[in-house]
Amino acid sequence: MTFVDTSGNIKYIDSSDSSPTTLLSSVSAKKDGIAVGTWQSSPVSVFFANNNDEDGLYRKSPGGERQLVNDFSTKLRAVIGIGDIDGDSSDEIAAVTNGQKIAVLDDDGSTYVSNQQPASSTGLAIGGVADYNGDGQERIAIVDGSNKPVLVGCGNNPGGEYKCNSKWGGTSTLSGAGQAKKAPFGKGNIDGDSQPELVYAENINSPAELYGVSVSGDTASDEAHVTRSDGTRIKVVVAKGVSEYVEPLSPSLLRRMLSTE
Questions:
Q1: pLDDT tens string for the chain (261 positions)?
Q2: More exposed terminus of the chain, fewer Cβ within 10 Å: N or C?
Q3: How far apart are CA 129 and CA 82, in angstroms?
Q4: pTM (2 decimals)?
């Protein structure tokens, strides 16, 4: 698991580690969101926004040097994830601006800032980038101001410009899904069907309980509280949100990173 500590250093830790390892220090990385992945054939890296260069998006791979990926036209607050958001078979990077708007870096180096806006209470209410409903398009998961999970789709309209909305991008509010905390949340294949679910702290009980939502088309097809093997619900103390789920028997993403360097 990768994270940003209170001093802005980027660190990682595996289940077998006794303490975190520092990937990058003295960078003042922004704490609202970082992403792990590859972009344009780069080594697997951590992608992050930097307090010292607020319109710059950077990456750092284990053993590599910090590199500037792109200068955005607006200041960045967080990086959400990497995926083929516009369906052109090349990955984009999704981020959030200081003005709390979804921003996209296209594979050709161009940038776009949408009007889609994640809520913010206990941190930015952003999830991850994934194909949540199996239609082949990857979308950006957020929670809106009404505590509803939203899948933001971004695509090129006939004029050749990005639009993140229901007409061109397939953005949909999962209105049937349970209320979500305005906090960071995760994704994971928690029901074993090979399709990722949204996993968040619900906004109904106190303390909050962990909730999972499956998506079919533009609707929540199945939703339930996440439970232990004995059927009891999992209570969540919401500090900054819910991390991504990794199946216990799978090697961690970080171990895959280090083994491929």
A1: 888 888 888 888 887 888 998 888 878 888 889 999 999 999 999 999 988 888 899 999 988 889 999 998 889 999 999 999 988 899 999 999 999 999 999 999 999 999 899 999 888 999 999 999 998 889 999 999 999 999 999 988 888 888 888 888 889 998 778 789 999 898 888 888 888 999 999 988 888 888 999 999 888 888 888 888 898 998 877 655 444 544 433 334 334 434 344
A2: C
A3: 6
A4: 0.86
Q: Phi/psi class of residue 202: alpha, beta or left (left: φ > 0; alpha: ψ in -120 to 50)? A: beta
Domain boundaries, the chain: 2-260
Asked if residues 187 and 131 have their Cβ atoms less than 8 Å apart, the reply is no
Task: Kindly list the distances between the CA atom of residue 55 and the CA atoms of 30, 108, 118, 204, in Å, as whole numbers in the listed order.
Answer: 12, 18, 19, 37
Neighbours of 117 (CB within 10 A): 18
Cβ atoms of 212 and 224 within 8 Å: the answer is: yes
Q: 238, 201 in Cβ contact below 8 A?
A: yes
Type of residue found at 166:
S
* Structural element, H or E, at residue 247: none
CATH classification (class only), 2-260: mainly beta
How many other CB atoms sit within 10 Å of the CB of residue 129? 24
